TrEMBL record:
EC number: 2.1.1.-
Organism: Oleiagrimonas citrea
Protein name (database record): Ribosomal protein L11 methyltransferase
PANTHER family named among the record's database cross-references: ELECTRON TRANSFER FLAVOPROTEIN BETA SUBUNIT LYSINE METHYLTRANSFERASE
InterPro entries noted in UniProt: Ribosomal_L11_MeTrfase_PrmA, Ribosomal_PrmA_MeTrfase, SAM-dependent_MTases_sf
Subcellular location: Cytoplasm
NCBIfam families registered for this protein in UniProt: prmA
Family: Belongs to the methyltransferase superfamily. PrmA family.
GO molecular function ontology, one term from the record: protein-lysine N-methyltransferase activity
UniProt xrefs under Pfam families: PrmA (PF06325)
């Protein structure tokens, strides 16, 4: 069935009242976007801290209603709650229904990383590539499927390593794609660490789906074991990467390879200085606006 979509732009300090009003009026969902996206004033917001909800200075609120919702009543009530609004600022449009999972599946095709590693939708039964190492993932897990440059940089790095019989730590595991890829590439065991319990659940599910669940352990950071790994990869953000440098050094065996990503171009210089006391042979690789740092733990 079709839906009714309403979009409006307003200052961030008016967002809570507007969102509450939309929900009272029967909105099925409300999403927020940067009103200055794709302009020089665009500002990136990544993973916020606990109990933090950072917003842009101006936001676009988009609400979805049942198709038969009363447009005039919604407009009247919103203008009553937010007197500064003008009816012309309210953009209503009909949205056709579709199979959203199918639409995403149509975009999510098998992707190759390095020489032999492939990420494939879990229910794609047509994929056939000789000598491919295949990781199958739920296409609903957008960030952890390899479509993001930081994930792609780490997958390519893993494909270039000799992982046979090694232990691997994936810090900030998300969907578990890096740990699972390492296991499929020959690692003996992997450890996934994430501060989001839902990420740990997703990692477990994906590991089971790929037949490596018995070789993958997952933990919250405070519960993770301290044993150093043969290979270490952390795909998080530059701030936590800087704060955790000494901690990461303790989690990597002497001489072992490591990689960091989640780093925007321009942030790598400070991180290179930060990691130099514990790591050597440091180098960078760039994809779009994102950077990977890799090297080895000093002996």
């Amino acid at each position: 069935m079709p839906w009714l979509e309403l979009s409006l732009t307003l200052p961030a300090d008016r967002q809570p009242e507007c969102e509450d009003a939309l929900e009272e009026l029967g909105a099925l969902s409300v999403t927020l976007q940067d009103a200055d996206a794709e302009t020089p004033d665009e500002r990136a917001i990544f993973e916020p801290g606990v109990d933090q909800t950072p917003l842009w200075s101006r936001v676009v609120l988009t609400a979805l209603f049942e198709d038969d919702a009363d447009r005039a009543f919604i407009a009247t009530e919103l203008c009553r709650v937010l007197p500064e609004l003008q009816p012309a600022q309210l953009d209503f449009r009909a949205v056709a229904d579709q199979d959203w999972e199918r639409a995403w599946m149509d975009q999510f095709k098998p992707m190759r990383f390095g020489r032999r590693l492939w990420i494939v939708p879990w229910n794609d039964e047509t994929f056939a590539e000789p000598d491919a190492v295949v990781v199958r993932l739920d296409p609903g897990l957008a960030f952890g499927t390899g479509t993001h440059p930081t994930t792609a940089l780490c997958l390519e790095w893993l494909d270039g390593l000799d992982l046979d019989g090694r232990s691997v730590t994936d810090y900030g595991c998300g969907s578990g794609v890096l740990a699972i890829a390492a296991l499929k590439l020959g690692a003996a065991r992997a450890l996934g660490v994430d501060n989001d319990p839902q990420a740990l659940t997703a990692t477990r599910d994906n590991a089971e789906r790929n037949g490596v669940g018995d070789r993958l352990d997952v933990h919250l950071p405070e519960d993770a074991p301290d044993a150093p790994a043969d290979v270490f990869v952390a795909n998080i953000l530059a701030g936590p990467l800087s704060e955790l440098a000494e901690r990461f050094a303790a989690l990597v065996k002497p001489g072992a390879p490591f990689a960091l990503s989640g780093i925007l171009d321009g942030q790598q210089h400070e991180l290179l200085d930060c990691y130099a006391p514990w790591f050597e042979d440091l180098r960078t690789q760039q994809r779009e606006d994102w950077i990977r740092i890799d090297g080895r733990r000093r002996a």
